[in-house]
Design a protein that fits this description.
The chain is mainly α. The protein contains 16 helices and no strands. Helix 15 packs antiparallel against helix 16.
Length: 338
């Protein structure tokens, strides 16, 4: 018979390896197996998951506007490890299933409120992550800001992972809220520190959100520099996420400066790379860029066909698609329709 603890460790190592390689769909499958065995399953879509999220949302409102949980129960090593794995599962779900990601973020938040939050290892990660989701989904900017402010009190300022997570989640929150003046200048020192410890996930995500803001502000020099940094991470570490986000930022830049042919080339590369890594939500982004480029080049028929492809991915998510993934598709669809 297989030793259950050895099986959990084995599957956990596979999940983490797939996560580190940015193979999100496969990683989620293994995280689900491990967390189920640890008694902390990520909620599935359905009546049960949505009912649980409703009550958790009430707890969230209480915490955000009334008081911090007062539990004195100290988490053990197993609980801290479970929370760490759970949070990585939520990060992986951001490229697979946004509805489950939201349900999972709420459930992890609920679980943390039952313990002394000051004793939970890297506790701020879960609350900062939920704050970002509340903003990037458009559910509530105000609630996202309140939770962000609360969680930032618990950031370990001596820990690079914690500081980088705070930088990423606050940048995402302020980007989606349009509060661009609150986004701090590029933190080169922290970025380099994150790369030294192998925190590629937060490094790549910081760059893409920072770059998108600079594009919206018309600071194309900063955007070009961000593209170069992101590309360097992708090439140096063979990191799939950075490769995809390099193509995303290139597509964004070329569309904004009117280099439409170049934008189409980068978008098509992005579609192919997304398919290679089975990242449908990234493919939705690139199909949006592709359709906009096609329409700008006078290929209305091709643009409509591309929109039809993108619509399949959009509808497949069923309930929620975070705005940052949906924006290029919606912008292109509007452009084509008019």
């Amino acid at each position: 018979d297989t030793d259950p603890e050895k099986l959990i460790r084995f599957e956990k190592n596979i999940a983490l390896a797939l996560y580190n390689k940015a193979q999100w769909s496969e990683a989620v499958g293994y995280f689900d197996k491990v967390l189920e065995q640890l008694g902390a399953p990520v909620p599935k879509k359905g009546v049960g998951g949505f009912a649980l999220s409703f009550w958790t949302f009430m707890v969230l409102l209480k915490v955000a506007y009334l008081k911090i949980p007062g539990s004195k129960k100290t988490p053990g090593d197993q609980e801290n490890e479970t929370f760490s794995l759970y949070f990585k599962a939520i990060e992986a779900l951001s490229y697979v299933d946004h509805t489950r990601q939201f349900l999972g973020a709420l459930d992890l938040f609920r679980r943390t409120t039952k313990l002394d939050i000051s004793k939970i290892s890297k506790f701020s990660f879960s609350w900062l992550g939920l704050a970002a989701i509340l903003s990037v989904s458009g559910i509530s900017f105000r609630l996202g800001s309140r939770l962000l402010e609360t969680a930032q009190r618990y950031v370990d300022t001596e820990d690079v992972f914690s500081r980088m997570n705070n930088l990423v989640m606050s940048t995402i929150t302020f980007h989606c809220q349009g509060a661009w003046d609150k986004i701090q200048d590029f933190d080169e020192d922290l970025m380099n520190a994150a790369l030294r410890i192998g925190d590629l996930f937060h490094a790549a995500n910081y760059l893409v959100f920072y770059g998108l803001v600079k594009g919206e502000q018309g600071e194309f020099g900063h955007l070009q520099k961000t593209i170069e940094r992101t590309n360097a991470i992708g090439e140096t570490y063979a990191y799939n996420l950075a490769m995809l986000e390099t193509l995303e930022l290139k597509s964004e830049l070329f569309l904004k400066v009117g280099s439409v042919h170049k934008a189409l080339v980068e978008a098509e590369k992005g579609v192919l790379l997304s398919r290679k890594h089975r990242s449908e939500l990234h493919e939705l982004i690139f199909l949006g860029y592709k359709a906009e480029a096609q329409q700008s080049l006078g290929d209305a028929k091709g643009a409509r066909a591309t929109i039809a492809q993108a619509l399949q991915f959009h509808e497949k998510q069923s309930v929620m698609v975070l705005t940052i993934f949906m924006a290029p598709f919606l912008a292109a669809r509007f452009f084509v329709d008019i």
